[in-house]
Amino acid sequence: MAGDGPTRARRDQARRAAREAAREAVPDAPSAPRGGRPGGPGDPLSAALRRAGLVRLLVLGLLDGDEPAYGNRLIERIRELSGGLVTVNPNTMYPLLRTLEEEGLAQGEWEHPVRRSRRFYRLTPAGARAREALRGEVLPALDEVAEAVDRLRAELAPAAPDGPGRSASQPSR
User: Fold this and answer.
1) Given CB 3.0 to 4.6 Å as the disulfide criterion, which of 68, 79, 117, 155 pairs with 111?
2) What is the DSSP-derived secondary structure letter of residue 107?
């Protein structure tokens, strides 16, 4: 068909973009800083956590919950859990879910098997093992960010001794 060339090129381009978005959410993937959008990949507060695999860990954790786990709901839950610090867009979430499925870490099924609708995901036993291994890599990065925020808070809003933000063991400035 004459129209197949441009259609195929657009489809290939979309696939490349999807793979790149999935790599962005996978640990050890090179991350190119983009913009300064709060909670996005270029945000300095969340960038280190993303590189450590935070989004992947959050998704693996949320797939083990009691609520239905589908792409848009996972995006909402991550935004809620992080207070907006970490945002994930559909161009990252859906390729990540497909990657987790391909790796055997998640299993998906359509809400309505006859027609395409929402795809619900759940964690597999291999996904639970991967989640625990990834937790050991992400939590130290999360602790580093928390400590940095605590230092900033102490510097910018020092409290009276024994007040909120400063313990009796912390020296005053």
Assistant:
1) 117
2) E
Q: What is the pLDDT of residues 56-90, one digit of tens each?
A: 999 999 999 887 799 999 999 999 998 988 899 99
Q: pLDDT tens digit string along 28-53?
A: 443 433 444 455 556 666 777 888 89
Coil, helix or strand at residue 80: helix
Q: Tell me how many helices (H) and strands (E) the chain has.
A: 6, 2
Bridge partners, residue 121, by sequence: 108
Q: Is 106 helix (H, G, I), strand (E, B) or coil?
A: strand
What is the four-CA torsion angle of 30, 36, 39, 44, rounded to 10 degrees?
A: 60
Specify which residues 108 forms β-bridges with: 121
Half-sphere exposure of 74 (CA within 13 A, CB side): 28
Task: Please check whether residue 91 is in contact with residue 40, taking contact to mean a CB–CB distance below 8 angstroms.
Answer: no
State pTM to two decimals.
0.65
